[in-house]
Amino acid sequence: MTSIITSYWKVFRLIFVMFFLYLMGDAFFRWDGFSYYATFSEFLPAVALVSILWSAVALFTAMVIWLGGSLLEWLCRRTGWKIRIEHLLLFISVFAVLGALAWTGKRIIW
């Protein structure tokens, strides 16, 4: 049971951090335009509400990704492969980073 909870929290932390980095970038980009006609104290409640809603979205997204990973882990265990959710997350993360590097390199070259 603790292994299940631990693996879910690993997925949740990853998704939560990614979502909030995106949210903070977007919020302060919008604040740049918002600052011309309002104060930061008027902008702060909107950011707080969006943060709460974004947390709920991160929770749901992490649950969907974790359930998919758990299903894949269960299928691999039934076939005899020793693949765990942590291995899957590491593979996807490395694949995404390499894809981003290739895309950035392509933009620099061309």
Descriptive terms for the model:
110 residues, mainly alpha, 3 helices, 89% helix
Uncertain regions spanning at least 5 consecutive residues: none
Mean pLDDT: 82
Q: How many individual helices?
A: 3
Q: Give the strand content.
A: under 5%
Please give the largest β-sheet: none
Number of domains: 1
The proportion of residues forming helix, as a percent range, comes to: over 70%
Distance, first to last CA: 51 Å
Based on CA inertia axes, which overall geometry fits? flat
* Element order: H for helix, E for strand: HHH
Structural class computed from helices and strand pairing: mainly alpha
- How many strands appear in the DSSP assignment? 0
Radius of gyration: 19 Å
Subunit organisation of the chains:
single chain
What is the gist of this entry?
The protein is an all-alpha fold.
Description:
The radius of gyration is 19 Å and the shape is flat. It has one domain. It is 89% helix and 0% strand. With 110 residues, it is an all-alpha fold. It contains three helices and no strands.
